[in-house]
Structure formats: structure tokens, C-alpha cells
Specification:
Dipeptide-binding Protein, domain 3, 7-stranded mixed beta sheet, 18% strand, 30% helix, 581 residues, disordered N terminus
Length: 581
């Protein structure tokens, strides 16, 4: 047994102190090179063919890249090359796209490469687009190319669920004459093609990786992005680290008026990414996220509704008592809007327009906006949000908060004062306190006219699964535009996009569908805007949605986080962010 002398004790204490100093230095160094990113729910998938929610996209877009991306500092939004050398050459009256691809773009290391370096080839984009059409993928991105690329629907039917046929069967309209040239031929003009090629759905993927993982890419990340996957602890956190072999990329050197006013161009021309590591912290509860932010464990956060009045003053500025917290606040407009969704195939709601009208008139939208956005949100007047060409601020929704009118419509629906109406089911988008509060709000609103509402709590992934399967009855729905064009809104209501597509309301109208086939081919002209208005009139008349609000958000941001500019259209923001004093 060792004899513990004073000298020995001193040596051990000194050693311990040295270890503590080294440990603290290491922890501080790690913190100084790590961005802590908040996530409000579970990640449903890391597969770019199926990632279609904002939570998953926050991670996916850091690791996967596409041919094009939106300029980080310019508004209106402008597409620029990412993996492409330049913008595409468009021929044949808008039906042929010729895209040159950068050379030397390396993928993250992966077991499917068997120890070899793998570089992007044009064929990898073809593989991924084939995955969107492959029935076994059940891709949320199939709608992008359904009927648009020559031969893609034939490929889908011939291949079915057979992976061997997937590998051996070509799509007529997508070819790669060499490793760095991609040619896409369309059945008809599709002005949004370049926008589609900026979405995660079209990230390149090597065929050998798809085969190695047996087509299940939910938990891996085989991309070319600035950050690679280190660890995913489900329900807790995701850790990404800088990809040391990331291709040369630089912080943008020009921006709009806002970017100059907010001093977002100071790093112009510097090589990106700046930060070594990013940790995504999954916390479902808004108050937990807020406490984590105030403790310095998160670098930015949308100000929670329950804390808004204590943080933001009447002028929309940070209150004095928070100025010593080393934080600041900024407000950002978005391309996100919200509505109450009705399942048009539901035997009760879908077949009864007067019932849907009764519900719409029973909801106090202004109170909802006050309660859940602290009056930051804007009451929606159109199915098209502000910021996209063709939005008309003079139109309005065909309903208002009016209990008496709501009761009249309920009686016309055959349920006077709610008599004889079965209890309706409201599905939540998650299980957080805020989601439960929203459910309680809608329940109390409808009780005023005698409509009973039962709340079904879901995790976010289970909510998405129900939406894809068309199993929702009544719910809070929302959309963040994939690209700034009316077509991206209107496709949510087309028959061909009924679940598992993005048309969760299962709305179907032949006249609307016919107009959609016209409007999707149009450039932004007065002719297109008039057709948009006619389509909106149909939707407002038949009411598959009861519109609520356009989203604007206040973000609290740590002063150490530089270059932060929120956009719900651009998820690949981390590579532009820097840490400093």
C-alpha cells in the first residue's frame, strides 16, 4: 500500500491542476470554434431524397450540396452556381438544360468507397434523380420531376420496386456525355428547373453508396458539403465537423442594402467555412431552448412567445435588462405561412363546405397571432405570401372571426349548435408545450359554436408520416417555400400531389389542375398573375385551407456569432457563419 506523504500529495495536486488547466483550455478552444445550433424537434431523416421538413433540412444542407444555391446576401433571391461551373445553358425553347459540373469535388469519406477518395461525377446526379422516381424510395421530392423529364414516368413504372432494374434502366431525358456534363431534356418548359436543382432532393449520390446501404440512407451523410457527420444521438444532438477536403469556396463579396447596413460583408472574399464544428441541440420545449440560450449553450434562437414581452420592448428592440447578456435581436421576414388544414377526403369535413366555413369563422385569427406570435406575425390575406411575384395585397380571405356567422354555417351544415356532429380530431405537429397550447386554443375556439375537438399528440416524425399517408382530419399546416415562385404554392393543391405528395389536404379540382398545367410553364408576366388570381378564387371558394398568418421572426443572437442572416429559403447557412468578439 502506498504511503501518502505531503510531498506525494503536492505532486498529485499539481498534476491535477495541470490537467484541469489543459482540460479547461481544450474546452474553451472547442467552444471558441463550435457553433451551437438549436433544433425544435427530432430529425426525421438524413436522406436528401426524403428530407422535407425544416428540422432535418437544418442538418442535411450542411453536408449535402446541389448544382445551384441562393446568394447568401442578396434579396430578391438570386441563384448562383454551387457544384455547377456556371448557370445552365438552356436550349430548345426552355426544354433542354446543359450543365457543366466543377471538377475535383470530393465526397466525405465513407465505408462505401472502400478507403478510396471519391469525386463527383455527372452520373451521381442521375442516380439521385432516379432515386426520386424509384417507388421504393417513396420520395417527398418526386413531385419536382413527375411528368417533366422525358421518360422519367416510364422509368418509374418499368422499374417499380426492383433495384436491379433501377441500376440497369436509364431515363431517356437525363444523360451524361462525360463525367462533368449533365444534360436534362424536358417534356415541356419548366421555368423552375434551376430552382429544383438547388434543393436537397437533387444532391448527387454515388450508386455504389446507394447499393452499399441497400437504399437506406436515413442515418448516413454522403455529401460534399462544408461539414461531415461525426455523431447523431437520436433525440439529443447531432455533431458535424469541418470537411478538411472541402472544395474552394469564398464568402460573398457583395450584398443588398440590408446586408451592408448589418455589416454582413466584412468577410468578403475569405475562404469558407470559418467554424470547425457545429453541434445541433435537440430540445422540443421552447423554454428549455431559451434557458440554454441565456446560459450561452446556444448561439441563436427564435425568441419564444412566452418570453417575447420580457425581452422585446414596445419599439421592437432588446430591453435594457438584457443588454448585459452579450446578445442582440433582429427581425427577419420569411417565406413561411400557416393555415388550418382540412382533409378533403374525410367523410365529415371533406364533404361539407358549410362545416369548413363554420370552423373558419369560429377562429379568432388576430387572437391566435397575438397569443402565439406576440403580434409579430401578419394576418394572411392570400394563399400567396408577400415576397413572391404576383402577390396581391388587396385581396382578402372569404371569412372573418364572427361567432354568429359560424353558427349559421354550422346549422347549414346540418349540425345546429353542433348537435349530431361527431367529435373531430386535431393532430399536433409535435408534443411540445407550444403544440399542446395551440391544440387547446383551437379546441376552445370551436367549443364556442358547439364543435368538439379531440387532440391527438404526435411526435414530429409521426405527424409527417400521417400527412404523407393522408390520415389527418384537422391540423395546423404550414409551408416554407422551396423557391420564390407561385408554382411552389399551387403545387400543394394539385391532384397529382395528393399524399404521399405535399398535398396533405387531398384537395382535387380538375379546373384548378388544368390551370396549374398552364401557370407552371409561365414566366412572371401579367398573364401569369391573372391566372394565379383565378386559381386563388377557386381555392378560397372551396376552402381546403383556412388561412392564418405569414410568419416573421425575432431572433436573439449571441454577439460572438457573426454573419448571421436568417432565411427559411436557405438552409446551408453554417458555412458562412463565423465566431468572434
Amino acid at each position: 500500500m502506498m504511503k501518502w506523504t505531503r510531498t506525494t500529495s503536492f505532486k498529485i495536486t499539481l498534476t491535477t491542476l495541470v490537467l484541469l488547466v489543459v482540460s479547461c483550455t481544450r474546452d474553451k478552444s472547442l467552444k471558441d470554434s463550435t457553433i451551437n445550433f438549436p433544433l425544435s424537434g427530432q430529425i426525421s431523416t438524413l436522406d436528401p431524397a426524403n428530407s422535407y421538413d425544416s428540422v432535418s433540412a437544418s442538418v442535411v444542407y450542411q453536408g449535402y450540396e446541389q448544382l445551384f444555391e441562393y446568394h447568401y446576401l442578396q434579396r430578391p433571391y438570386r441563384l448562383i452556381p454551387l457544384l455547377a461551373k456556371s448557370m445552365p445553358k438552356v436550349e430548345n425553347n426552355g426544354k433542354k438544360y446543359i450543365i457543366q459540373i466543377k471538377e475535383g469535388i470530393q465526397y466525405h469519406d465513407d465505408a462505401s468507397f472502400k478507403g478510396k477518395k471519391r469525386f463527383v461525377k455527372a452520373q451521381d446526379f442521375i442516380t439521385q434523380i432516379k432515386r426520386l422516381a424509384f417507388k421504393s424510395t417513396n420520395s417527398n421530392g418526386w413531385w419536382l420531376f413527375d411528368g417533366r423529364i422525358k421518360g422519367i414516368n416510364k422509368f418509374r413504372e418499368v422499374v417499380g420496386n426492383d433495384f436491379e432494374k433501377f441500376k440497369s434502366t436509364n431515363i431517356e431525358g437525363i444523360t451524361a456525355p462525360n463525367d462533368h456534363t449533365l444534360i436534362i431534356e424536358l417534356s415541356e418548359p419548366y421555368p423552375q428547373m434551376v430552382n429544383a436543382l438547388a434543393m436537397s432532393f437533387t444532391s448527387p449520390l454515388p450508386l455504389e453508396s446507394v447499393e452499399y446501404y441497400k437504399h437506406n440512407l436515413n442515418s448516413v451523410m454522403i455529401g460534399t458539403g462544408a461539414y461531415k457527420l461525426d455523431q447523431w444521438t437520436r433525440g439529443s444532438k447531432v455533431i458535424l465537423s469541418k470537411f478538411e477536403n472541402y472544395h474552394k469556396a469564398f464568402y460573398p463579396g457583395n450584398g443588398d442594402r440590408v446586408s451592408h447596413a448589418r455589416k454582413l460583408v466584412a468577410d468578403a472574399g475569405k475562404k469558407i467555412p470559418f467554424v470547425d464544428k457545429v453541434i445541433f441541440h435537440i430540445n422540443k420545449e421552447a423554454q428549455t431552448r431559451w434557458l440554454q440560450f441565456l446560459s450561452g449553450n446556444l448561439d441563436f434562437l427564435r425568441v419564444p412567445k412566452d418570453n417575447f414581452s420580457t425581452v422585446i420592448n414596445e419599439s421592437g428592440k432588446l430591453k435594457n435588462e438584457f443588454k448585459d447578456k452579450n446578445i442582440h435581436v433582429e427581425v427577419f421576414s420569411t417565406l413561411t405561412f400557416w393555415w388550418i388544414g382540412f382533409n378533403m377526403k374525410d367523410a365529415i369535413l371533406g364533404q361539407n363546405l358549410n362545416l369548413r366555413k363554420a370552423i373558419a369563422h369560429a377562429i379568432d385569427v388576430r387572437k391566435y397571432i397575438q397569443t402565439f406570435t406576440n403580434n409579430v406575425g401578419l394576418k394572411a390575406n392570400s394563399i400567396f405570401p408577400p415576397g413572391i411575384p404576383g402577390y396581391d395585397p388587396t385581396v382578402d380571405v372569404p371569412f372573418e372571426y364572427n361567432i354568429e356567422k359560424a353558427k349559421e354555417y354550422l346549422a347549414k351544415a346540418g349540425y345546429p349548435n353542433g348537435k349530431g356532429l361527431p367529435t373531430l380530431t386535431y393532430d399536433t405537429r409535435g408534443s411540445s408545450t407550444t403544440q399542446r397550447q395551440r391544440a387547446e386554443f383551437f379546441k376552445n375556439q370551436l367549443l364556442k359554436i358547439g364543435v368538439n375537438l379531440k387532440t391527438q399528440l404526435n411526435t414530429f416524425p409521426s405527424y409527417l408520416k400521417k400527412a404523407r399517408e393522408g390520415k389527418l382530419q384537422l391540423w395546423l399546416d404550414g409551408w416554407s417555400l422551396d423557391y420564390p415562385d407561385a408554382e411552389n404554392v399551387l403545387q400543394l393543391l394539385t391532384t397529382k400531389n395528393i399524399a404521399p405528395g405535399p398535398n396533405a389536404s387531398s384537395y382535387s379540382n380538375p379546373e384548378f389542375d388544368k390551370m396549374f398545367e398552364e401557370v407552371k410553364k409561365m414566366a412572371n408576366t401579367n398573364e401569369k398573375f391573372l391566372l394565379m388570381k383565378r386559381m386563388e378564387n377557386i381555392v378560397q371558394r372551396e376552402m381546403p385551407w383556412a388561412l392564418l398568418l405569414y410568419e416573421r421572426d425575432y431572433y436573439a443572437i449571441s454577439n460572438r456569432l457573426k454573419n448571421f442572416r436568417y432565411s427559411d429559403l436557405m438552409s446551408n447557412k453554417v458555412k458562412y457563419l463565423r465566431l468572434g468578439k
